[in-house]
Specification:
- The protein folds into two domains: 7-114 and 191-205, Hypothetical protein ph0010, domain 1 (Glycoprotein, Type 4 Pilin), CATH 3.30.700.20; 117-188, Dna Ligase, domain 1.
- With 223 residues, the protein is an alpha+beta fold.
- The chain has a five-stranded antiparallel sheet, with helices on one face. Strands 4-7-5-6 form a four-stranded antiparallel sheet.
- The chain has helices at 7-27, 39-43, 77-90, 127-130, 152-157, 161-171, 208-222, and strands at residues 47-54, 63-70, 106-113, 117-118, 137-142, 145-149, 185-189, 191-196, 203-205.
């Protein structure tokens, strides 16, 4: 299981994401790594994503407000979080740029990604068996097209691995069964995820396997 950071380091990253967005919205400036940055966060190189959601309650999934990041390491962890947070706030093409007034109405989530791993090509029908919902995220690549889904996405929608692959293809603007094509690459990775439980609130580490268990139990009770 990919867990490079403890909760204190995760809390630092989430608070840093919020601070970076607040400063950028106020002044247009990109902050530097604070003087109290844990040394590990300056040394490590991981892909990172920042997700911003409109807060709808502690026990409810928020409405997406922005999500952008780097699938592979471009910066050290701390600078990757700063830049991905700002990009999620003002550069996500699906949304208008955030305003400073929105900051107290949204929560921040930081996902730290493990290195991407290419699933063995040649036998795509085994891919659903290789992908563990609640553990893996996916990247679908075909020609100039590419789509990434974070590990929390299939958990939040209670998908199985085949639905996850289909949705990954559609995220790449490809047919849902594109993962069966020989010229499609499917990559997997893991993520450690820290998030605010409410705006400016406590930071926790998400347990996706537990969330998936609750989701599936809820589906069974409905049936």
């Amino acid at each position: 299981m990919f867990k490079p950071y403890n909760i204190e380091e995760g809390r630092f990253l989430v608070k840093l994401a919020r601070a970076a967005v607040e400063e950028y919205l106020r002044s247009g400036k990109i902050i530097q790594a604070p003087s109290d940055t844990p040394p590990k966060l300056l040394k490590d190189m991981y892909g990172v994503f920042t997700t911003i959601e409109i807060f709808t309650g502690r026990d409810r999934r928020g409405e997406l407000r922005g999500c952008i990041g780097f699938p592979q390491a471009v910066y050290n962890t701390v600078n990757g979080v700063i830049r991905s947070a700002i990009a999620a706030a003002v550069e996500d093409p699906r949304f208008e740029p955030m305003s400073i007034e929105e900051l107290n109405k949204v929560t921040f989530e930081v996902s730290v990604l493990s290195p991407l791993e290419l699933l063995e090509p040649g036998n795509p029908r085994i891919y659903p068996e290789k992908i563990v919902v609640g553990r893996h995220g996916i990247v679908i690549q075909k020609g100039y097209y590419s789509g990434l889904l974070l590990p929390q996405v299939p958990v939040e929608y209670c998908w199985d691995s085949m639905t996850f692959l289909n949705e990954g293809c559609m995220k790449a603007f490809l047919p849902p069964d594109c993962w069966l094509d020989e010229d499609t690459s499917v990559l997997i990775y893991e993520a450690q995820i820290f998030k605010e439980v409410e705006p400016n609130g406590e930071v926790v580490e998400r347990d996706l396997m537990e969330e998936l268990r609750r989701c599936r139990n809820a589906d069974k009770s409905k049936g």
